[in-house]
Amino acid sequence: MIGKIYHPGKLLATALIVALWVGNLLAADVPTVMITGTTHGIGFEFAKQYAEKDWNVIATTRRTWAPSIVELAKEHKNITIEYLDVLDHRNIDLLASKYRNTPIDVLINVAGIFGDLRSQFLGRIKHAEFSPFMRTNALGPLKVTEAFVESIKLSKQKKVVAITSLAGSVGADSGGLPGQYFYKTSKTALNMFFLLMANDLNDDNVKVVLLSPGIVRTREMPFPIPGQIEPPESISAMIGIIDRLTIADTGTIIRYTGSKVPW
Amino acid sequence: MVTISRNMQLLQLVALITGLLWFSWTEAATVLITGANRGIGLEFSKQYAAKGWKVIATHRRPEHPATLQALSATYPASVVIERLDVQDHAMIEGLAKKFEGQPIDLLINNAGIFGSLTNRQEQMFGTLDHTLFDNFMHTNVLGPIKISEVFLENIKASDRKQIVIISAMAGSFALNSQNPYPGGYFYKASKAALNIAFVSLAKDTKRFGITVTILSPGQVKVEKLADYTFPGQISPEESISGMINVIESQMPAASGRFFDYKGKLRQW
After folding, report:
1. What's the whole-number average pLDDT of chain B?
2. Which of A195, B116, B157, B220 lies 20 to 30 A from B124 at CA?
3. pLDDT above 70 as % of chain B
4. Sign (positive/negative) of CA torsion B108, B109, B113, B114?
5. B46 CB near a chain A CB, below 8 Å?
6. With the CA atoms of B37, B257, B193 and B200 taken in that order, what torsion angle do they form, in degrees rounded to the nearest 10?
7. What is the average per-residue pLDDT within B23-31?
8. Stronger pLDDT, B224 or B43, i.e. the higher one
């Protein structure tokens, strides 16, 4: 009797079916999101919420040993931590080739710097800080998207997102903070890159949008500001927006509240 | 009452005469132009020199270019040629030191790069040459910020207090939303970044009465485009005389706006 039940052929067939089912689940039904800058703040919260939604999460960071993301990956087996420095283009290319045949449904470019306000006031601008801003906030997301575009095209959802700021909108006249020359110019350059990519990837049905997260309380913004919101609120709202994105939204800036932001 | 009224009239007359005399005695206005050796910058230099302005014409060549030498030969008393590489911050500071205490009425940030006209692939998605990025950003964005910052005291000390930025429609989000032509990633992003930098600078310098004007020169047929024909092309003479009219009509209240060479307000 026992021999009959555990017949090797039956076992093999069952194992094969289970493996196929699991594989199918991973490959087709579970979408994949890749997020840059997941050590803390907005990127970390995106990784957490997508993991809770049972997505496959590729969480990239310059600090793969950071307790925050390591702990999160222990709790959620669907998180894969990858080392990625958006300033290192060779590193970006290598990671992209590793995932060349993996469909990536959503790419979220979060990694960025806010910098020190004091070094950006007219009259005492520290010009040496310009390049790190531009390369991190504008060129980084462009390079990452260009490198991973084939994986995005392979996917079902085909969405590319970058986190921008109202400070980068020329037409918003937000009465933004004085100075902030490098933060503002880097976000404006980012916005232009994403508008141009939206144009170029329109025929491939790749949706390219910029998201304005609101004034999120993060490590860079710890002090209380009117209208400030907590990361979970901003990020869950933005995930809702990403879920509903269509090609009609491509090439726009959308605030976490859902309203369109002027360029 | 009659006496007071007569006194008032007399006072007005005296004020008027004093004003007129003061105006005619005042030194000619001064303009500093970057990238003045050819194209748009050279035409600005020529037209301001012809208007009797004092022109500080700057360029980055090792030797003073023949174009500017010829201009200064025509206007020996009013055209000064200076070396200025907008990427060289020590050189910018050195030049500012030289002109310390001298009012500069108008600063025209013109020097900029467009990229290769023959190799368009290097600014196309998929084949972007990312090594070009820094050069674009340092020349087209950081250079004008640094120069405006360093010469701010000269501008504040002048009568007109104007800063002009030569931008481009290529940096307009409104235009690029219509996808008029592909590529030009670094050029377009640098001009968009330049625009926000000077919208910001306009706000930061409002309290000094400084007027910042961002200009699109149009499709100017400069020397390097001699072999190209494109629709809407205009001569440097037409573009620059148009822009000078726009610059002259500016008021501090309009600081930080974007106009084309015809004076039409353009969208960001």
Report:
1. 92
2. B220
3. 90
4. negative
5. no
6. 110
7. 73
8. B43
CATH of the domain at B81: 3.40.50.720
Residue B14, pLDDT > 80, answer no
What pLDDT does residue A171 have? 85
Report pLDDT for A29.
81
Structural domain includes residue B37: yes
| Segments of chain A with pLDDT less than 50 | 1-3
- Integer angstrom CA distances of residue B19 from B10, B34, B156, B180: 14, 33, 21, 51
Residue B140 maps to a domain:
yes
> Nearest to residue B176, comparing CAs of B191, B198, B164?
B191
Select the residue of A170, A189, A193 nearest B199 (Cβ to Cβ).
A170
Put simply, whether B266 touches A (Cβ < 8 Å) is no
pLDDT of A1 reads 44
Question: Are residues A245 and A197 in contact, defined by beta-carbon separation less than 8 angstroms?
Answer: no
Strands (DSSP E) contained in chain B are: 30-33, 54-59, 79-83, 106-109, 162-166, 211-216, 219-220, 233-234, 257-260
Domain count, chain B: 1
Superfamily of domain covering A31-261: NAD(P)-binding Rossmann-like Domain (3.40.50.720)
Q: What is the pLDDT of residues B141-178, one digit of tens each?
A: 999 999 999 999 999 999 999 999 999 999 999 999 99
Q: Do B125 and A200 touch (CB under 8 A)?
A: yes
Q: Look up residue A29 and give its two tokens.
A: 């039904």
Residue B96: inside a domain, yes or no?
Answer: yes
Does the CB of B265 have a partner CB in chain A at under 8 Å? no
Tokens of B53: 């302005």
B65 pLDDT more than 60: yes
Model pTM score: 0.90
Q: Is the pLDDT of residue B18 over 70?
A: no
What is the C-alpha separation between A73 and A47, in angstroms, rounded? 9
d(CA A170, CA B33): 25
Q: What's the CA gap between A162 and A166, in Å, rounded?
A: 13
pLDDT class of B222 with cuts at 50, 70, 90: confident
**ipTM, 2 decimals?**
0.89
Taking residue A3's Cβ as centre, other Cβ atoms within 10 Å add up to: 7
pLDDT at B254 over 60: yes
Residues B234, B260: contact at Cβ < 8 Å?
Answer: no
Structural domain containing residue B186:
29-260
User: Is B3 contained in some domain?
Assistant: no
Token duo for residue B77: 């008393």
The crossing angle, in degrees rounded to 10, of helices B39-50 and B66-74 is 10
Shortest distance between the Cα of B202 and any Cα of chain A, in A, equals: 10
Asked whether the beta carbons of residue B137 and residue A189 sit closer than 8 angstroms, the reply is yes
Helix H or strand E segment including A160: strand A159-163
Q: Are B151 and B199 in contact (CB under 8 A)?
A: no
